[in-house]
Automatic annotation (TrEMBL):
Catalyzes the reversible isomerization-deamination of glucosamine 6-phosphate (GlcN6P) to form fructose 6-phosphate (Fru6P) and ammonium ion. The keyword Hydrolase applies. Pathway: Amino-sugar metabolism; N-acetylneuraminate degradation; D-fructose 6-phosphate from N-acetylneuraminate: step 5/5. This is Glucosamine-6-phosphate deaminase. Residues 10-229 form the Glucosamine/galactosamine-6-phosphate isomerase domain.
Amino acid sequence: MEIVKVRNYDEMSEKACDLIVEKVNKLDNPVLGLATGSTPEGMYQQMIDSYQKNKVSFTKTTTFNLDEYVGLAGNNPNSYRFYMNEKLFNHIDLPDNRAFLPTGDSDDLQKECRDYETLMYKAEYIDVQVLGLGLNGHIGFNEPGTAFDSRTHIVDLDETTRKANARFFDSLNDVPERAITMGIETIMESKKILLLVSGEKKAEAVYRLVYGETSEEFPASILQKHENVILIADEGALSKL
Ligand SMILES: N[C@@H]1[C@@H](O)[C@H](O)[C@@H](COP(=O)(O)O)O[C@@H]1O
């Protein structure tokens, strides 16, 4: 795992954006894996800036998001589809029909999981997957205990995860109890992984990620086995290494 130490959140966002833009400009049909949460917001803003300055175009790009809450339609402001539209998709030239997220309000969730895998397979999998890190080591919504050989599936969210994400909702009660997420094996098939971490509150999780044993109890620890991971983290996040 390559560790890139940056001073702060803004530098992390810039660095991550530069790597994405470089890849998008280099590949004929780039496939990006995207994440939600607070961490990648700055990177998305940088990507919009790069697009507006004509440094990059996304017309040939396909994107797959990691996850979506079960039960939330795309026009629900708390859905990840809504987040992605607001924070990135509405501001760049990525074609609508190539920006994929799982459909959280699908009538047949198992079929939705299978269909999502098929779409990724047809796109020949992800060139660069952006990941954030949950406090309990979750990646996407793969909570502790998720099998390392899991594919896209439905998860019951940990109480700690629901609490951590409650800040985006009116109340904890409104936070869905389930989500659809790419599985660990799906994520590990990405050719390159860009893991972004900022802030001291993630320092313990970063320590376990880098030095802890590889265990399903701490899902992000599997990344030690991936050949092409870049961890971009600021001083706070790296303060326990
Ligand atoms: N499903 C998302 C993850 O993809 C994200 O990486 C994580 C960290 O979020 P944040 O970046 O807000 O700390 O939380 C959420 O639960």
